């Protein structure tokens, strides 16, 4: 499509205005010899091809103005394809140029003797007018080209900003948002569309933001974003043009995410069998077995209660295996929504389902290629995915969701569960054939209460780590606490021990951890001791709420506030993790 065609309406308007001002007809032809605008007889010829070898053709080819008034139907016209039928009594044609290229022609046309007379009388004036009209159209074309280029550049900038894995916001001198990328929207948890954010004041989104250039330094702050707080590391830079500030760029990352990335790196990089602490016979026996199993490629099934160290074992086995320099990829089958689990495991082809990325996505199996895939909470793998996993284990190839080409994968599988898989098989909650495929090397990790003195050895180790993590002096257990620890049954195992020690080490004022430094539930003995006298003084609704709050508080103290802790709480209370989150929210815990 020609530039003139894009501006067709505007060109027709210019033609009509000129025609009524000058009492002469006007027409415009584009570089493809198509009539774009016209008045008089040419109003009926719009969008049609112009006659061949006409005067307009010559102007398009030579780029020079042509005038034919006196010699109409003479030499200049004799090769024109409409020579015989032409009704023109005179014409003047001027090229329309962009960057020295002829992109069309504008002409003044006389169709009768009156118009021709006018053309003759006002010859100089009309010539000037025609050149000016060509110039007006050239300017309009230039503006359109510039706007077009700006739109393209804007789209490119948006694409570049969006592809950066960091929150980016650009604001103008009035502190209004001109650009925001998807990552920024995600970190800030803004739930309205991008279009509605552009033009808004940055302060209406992050109300405590101090917009001062951070001079290339990264600062840490907690931003108040509508109803929540987001801890970020950010940098602010003023963007200058000719020494004038034109806008301000705010780049930021959520601290939580950075810590998670760092944790993932350190976890997989440093963990080996030396990190599994304990001297008890039951533990050392399973460690020995695991070291032998690490040398093979066989599938391992780790069973044991929550917090006994199944993931720790899986990482240590990977670190001791021939795959140690390849990826260790973990996926928790219980914490990923059922409808997403298949694509998380196997990946998906582009456009496989609504909401899928247009580029498609690689799954955990492919990510773990040549390395180890740890399938945590395998007992929670939905029944409909079990045959698919079985097929992958048998054929050693995956098919992405929405695809049909098998992809070869070389992955060592380690899976884990706190559930009794054999019983689950009996109850028809887990396929027998899959169970046998996974249970090639079963390793059972004993609970902490059955590991003789391991609780004290682990405590030493954890207290050492805590003094570094919390930046405090090394703490020791009092004799009473040691006795208490030896008799307590540790339902949350080593994870619970870690939580209890972190609580106590943070709160104890001396280097000795005493009974009173332990979380309340330790000396309250059990949940049975929760006092509900005070809650009975209010309405039934309020007392029920208060009682629930006390119970949940008890369990949070016991198992900690981490996701794993919450999973254990949900399990003990016989509710789903989602229900637990809703309750915690309702009860403002
Ligand atoms: N023997 C051990 N020595 C040192 N730390 C341990 C030991 N066992 C477990 N831990 C620590 O306890 C915490 C819980 O361990 P891990 O996540 O491996 O347990 P898990 O059995 O996989 O739990 P879940 O079944 O809830 O997923 C981790 O911080 C881990 O480092």
From TrEMBL:
Sorted alphabetically, which keywords does the UniProt record give?
ATP-binding, DNA-binding, Nucleotide-binding, Transcription, Transcription regulation
Q: Please list every transmembrane segment annotated in the UniProt record, as residue ranges.
A: none
Known Pfam families for this protein? AAA_lid_14, PAS_8, Sigma54_activat
Q: Which Gene3D superfamilies match?
A: 1.10.8.60, Homeodomain-like (1.10.10.60), P-loop containing nucleotide triphosphate hydrolases (3.40.50.300), PAS domain (3.30.450.20)
Q: Which domain of life is it from?
A: Bacteria
Classification via CDD domains: AAA, PAS
> Keyword Cytoplasm on this protein?
no
**GO terms under biological process:** regulation of DNA-templated transcription
Classification via PROSITE patterns: PAS, SIGMA54_INTERACT_1, SIGMA54_INTERACT_2, SIGMA54_INTERACT_3, SIGMA54_INTERACT_4
Report whether Nucleotide-binding shows up as a keyword of the record: yes
| Residue stretches making up the Sigma-54 factor interaction domain | 276-506
Care to name a GO molecular-function term for this sequence? ATP binding
Indicate the segments forming the PAS domain, all copies: 153-191
Protein's recorded name: Transcriptional regulator containing PAS, AAA-type ATPase, and DNA-binding Fis domains
Q: What taxonomic classification does the UniProt entry list for its organism?
A: Bacteria, Bacillati, Bacillota, Clostridia, Eubacteriales
